[in-house]
Amino acid sequence: MTVENSDAGRALPDEFAALLGRALDDPVLAERAVVALLAEIGGARLARRTADGWHLVTAPGDLEPINSQLASLEIAAELSSGADTIAPAYAILAAEPDHTPLTQTAVQQICTWLTLCRTASERHDERDEYREELDALTVLVKHMLTVRDLDQVLLTITTETLRMSESDICGVFLREGDEIHMRSCVGHRLMETARLRMSAGQGVAGMVFETRAPARVDSYLQDRRISTHFMSLAEQEETRSALAVPLILGDDLIGVLEVWRRRYSNFTERDVRRLEELADLATIAIDNARLYDSQRTALTALESTRVRLKDQVDLLDETARLQKSLIDIVLDNGPVFPRVARTLAEHLNCTVAVLTPDGTVDAVYPRETPTAQMEHAFARHRESVNVGPRLLATGSDDPVWLQPIEIGSDHFGAVCVQGRDLSRERIGVACSQAAVACTLFYLQQRAASLARAEALDQILWDLMDGSAEQRAAARGRAQQMGVRLKGWHRVLYGAIENLESTTGRGEASVSAADRSRRAILRTVRDVSLPPQVTLASVRGNRLVALVPIQDRDRSRSFLKALNTQLGTDHAGVTISWGLSTPREHPGQYTEAYAEARTALAAARRLGGASSLYDDLGIVRLLLGHEDADFHSFVYEITGPLQAYDQKNDGALMKTLQAYFDANCSQKDAAELLYVHHKTLAYRLDQIRKLTGLDLSQHSDRMRADLALRLLDVSEQAEEPGGDVDRVE
C-alpha cells in the first residue's frame, strides 16, 4: 500500500526527478520509466484506473485486473487543467503495509505526472482525430459540391457516413408526405432494406421522424422503445445497434440519416455530434441537388419550349403561306378542288384526293395516282371521320389521313392524304387548311345559291301580290336571272298545318321547323312529274310556286304526285294545296294567285289534301273573297265562246242561252233559234270543246247557266242608268 501523509521512504533519484520535469507525449514511455523505477527500488507496483476499475501495470501497455479493495489507493487531490478537472488515473501499491519505498510527495508527483502524460496523449489523439475528421469533411464537402445528381449525392453521403461512423449499414430516408422511404443505402444484405418505407413512430427512423430529435439504440432487438414493425428484417440483417438523426431544412424535416452496426456498441455523444454534422452537410447537399435538378429541369423545359415554339413558328409561317395560296385559289373563281389537291400534294410531297360525301373522287394529284386505298379508307371510316380527322393504317406502307370537310352539321366529304413519313402535326394543320379552303368554296357556292334563292323568292312574291310597278320590275329581274316566265303557268299555293306540333317548341324546335320547311320546299321543286316548277318559295307555313302546266288532267296528276311524294318524305306533316287555272302572261299571276288561295280554302274546308280551281265550279263564288273569283268564273265559260263568235261570226253564246231557255231541250232550242236540230247539236259540241263543259252533266249545266246569268247582271250594271235589281 502507499504511505499516506508521511514523508517516510526514499526520495526520487535525481535523474527521475528530472524526467518528471518533462512532458512525454507517449504515456507508454512514461509508464515504462515508472515501472523501471519501482523495480529498481522494489517493494511497490504501479496501478492504473480505467473505465472497468483499477488494473496493475505489469508491463508498459499491459494491464492486470486488481480484485482487492483499492479505495485507499485513490489520491483525493484532483488536478486542474484549464476549465477541466482531471481525476488522477494512477496509484502506487506497496508490497508490504509497513514498508514505504517512496515518500508520499514522490508518489503524488509520479501519479500526477503519469496522469498528465496520459491526458496530454489523449488530447493529442483527439486533436488528430478531429483533424482527420475535418479533413474528411472537407473532402466530403468538396466532393458533394462537385456532384449535381441527387442520386449520386445520396450515394456519396451514405458511403462517407458509413466509413466515418465505423458502422456496417448506412441509409438516407427522404420524406414523401406522411412517410419516409429509403432513397440510398449501402452495406445492406437484403433488398427489402433498400426499399424500406415507414411512417412516424415505426423503427428508429420513424422515432426521429416523429420527434425530430436524434435517437440511438445500443441493443436493437431488446430496446422496448422501438416498434416491432421491422424486427424480422433487423434479425436477418443481424442489426445490434443503431443511430439516426433528422435532416432539417429550415423548419421542415426532409428526411432521416441512419447508421446500423452488426455488433453491440455504445454510440457516444461524439458519434451523435459527428452524425449530426454529416446530416447538416447532407441536408445542404440534398437541397443543392434538388435545386440543381429543379433548375436543370426548368432549363430543359425552357429549351424544349424554345424548340417547340420555334417549330410552331416555322409551322405557322409555312401554314400562313399555304393558307394564302389556298385562299387565292378560292378567290380566283376557277376550278377549286383540283388546284387545292395539287397545292397540298406539292406542299406535303404526297398524294392528295378530295372526296365527295358519297366517296367519289372529285380531284386527285398526281392525276394518274390510284385512289382505291383512299376510297376504301373513307368508306370504312366515314362516320368516325365526320367526328374529326383521323390517321388510318391501310395495310400498306403508306397511311391515309382523312380530314372532314364540314360546315356545322353538314358534311361535304373529306380531304385524303396518303404518303410515308408524314408528320402528324404538319399534316394535320395542312389538311385542316385545305379543308377550310374547300369549306370556303362550299360557303361561297351556298352564299351565291342563297342570294339567288332569296332574289327568286322576292321575284315570285312580287309577281303574286306586288303592286303594278313591283310586278313589272319582278318580270325584268326574272329575265335577267334566266327565269323563263313565258308560256302557260298555274299558281300552286300551300299551307303547312301542323309543323309546330311535330317539331315542338323552343329555340331548337324553331331551327328544326325551318329545316322542315326547306325540305318541303325542295320536295316541291324536285317532284318527279315533269316539268318541274319554275319558281317556288316558302314564307312561314305558306308555300307558293309557279307550275308550267296548262292541261287540267296533267294538273290533277301533278297534285297527286306531289301529295304522294310529300307523304313519303314528310310523314306526319299535314299540307293542303290549291292550284289555280293556267295563265299565259305574267301580268295575270295576281288573279291566278287569288284562285290558288280560293282553291286552298276549298281543300281545307272540304277536307281534301288538294284542290284544283278548275274543278270548284260555283264553290269558288262561295269561298272567293275578291272580284277576281267572280270575273274568272264568268270568263272561264263565256270568254272562249265570245271570242269564237267574234272571230267566226258565230252564235255560240246565243245557242247556249236558247238551250237553257228551252229547259235544256235540244229540240225546243232548235225551234227557238230556227235551226236544224243537227246544227244545234254541232254548236253544243263546239261549246264542249271550247269550255270543257259536258252539258249532259248537271253540275256543268249549273255552272254554265250561272255564268250566263252573272254575265247578264254585270252587263246591265255597266250600262248607263242600269239597274241590276230589275233582273230576275
TrEMBL record:
<comment type="similarity">
    <text>Belongs to the CdaR family.</text>
</comment>
<dbReference type="InterPro" id="IPR051448">
    <property type="entry name" value="CdaR-like_regulators"/>
</dbReference>
<protein>
    <submittedName>
        <fullName>Helix-turn-helix domain-containing protein</fullName>
    </submittedName>
</protein>
<dbReference type="InterPro" id="IPR041522">
    <property type="entry name" value="CdaR_GGDEF"/>
</dbReference>
<feature type="domain" description="GAF">
    <location>
        <begin position="149"/>
        <end position="296"/>
    </location>
</feature>
<dbReference type="InterPro" id="IPR025736">
    <property type="entry name" value="PucR_C-HTH_dom"/>
</dbReference>
<dbReference type="InterPro" id="IPR029016">
    <property type="entry name" value="GAF-like_dom_sf"/>
</dbReference>
<dbReference type="InterPro" id="IPR042070">
    <property type="entry name" value="PucR_C-HTH_sf"/>
</dbReference>
<dbReference type="Pfam" id="PF13556">
    <property type="entry name" value="HTH_30"/>
</dbReference>
<dbReference type="Pfam" id="PF13185">
    <property type="entry name" value="GAF_2"/>
</dbReference>
<dbReference type="InterPro" id="IPR003018">
    <property type="entry name" value="GAF"/>
</dbReference>
<dbReference type="Pfam" id="PF17853">
    <property type="entry name" value="GGDEF_2"/>
</dbReference>
